[in-house]
Amino acid sequence: MHIGHVRMLEYAASKATYLIIGVGSCNSAKTPENPFTAEEREEMLKQSLELKRPYELKRIPDFGDDVKWSGWIRENLSYDAYMTNSVRERAIMEAAGVNVLPIPFFERDLYSATEVRRRMLADGDWMSLLPEGTVKVMGTVDGIYRVKKLSNQG
Q1: Whose CB among 40, 41, 84, 109 lies 3.0–4.6 Å from 89's, allowing a Cys bridge?
Q2: What's the CATH number where 73 sits?
Q3: Do residues 129 and 119 lie in contact, with contact meaning Cβ atoms separated by under 8 Å?
């Protein structure tokens, strides 16, 4: 959970009266792409967000099948519009007939999970890219060690 995610969720909250935040890939953890569990990511969100709208977190599993994934979302979540800045997600959901609203990126070249992990692996300044709540959770789960271990650098 980096500062770009926080800004994205603040933007989404400014357009909604109630926000459902999907915790994606909830069935995938401790891999190089998803180093943290769904529970850890939820804790990062809770400790990092101060939204001015009510919200809830919902876990969304991966299926390896776009139709099954979009069907699961439509069947298990209740919403008026799906918001994303992912071109792929937008195409999947629009093909399923869902109203999709765009969310802008915020300093994408700086705030990305790839950049955060790159800095972690290089022992660089990664903490400035994360909200304080996420840094705190990273410390409690020994996140740096996990990221390095999963990338075969630890």
Answers
A1: 84
A2: 3.40.50.620
A3: yes
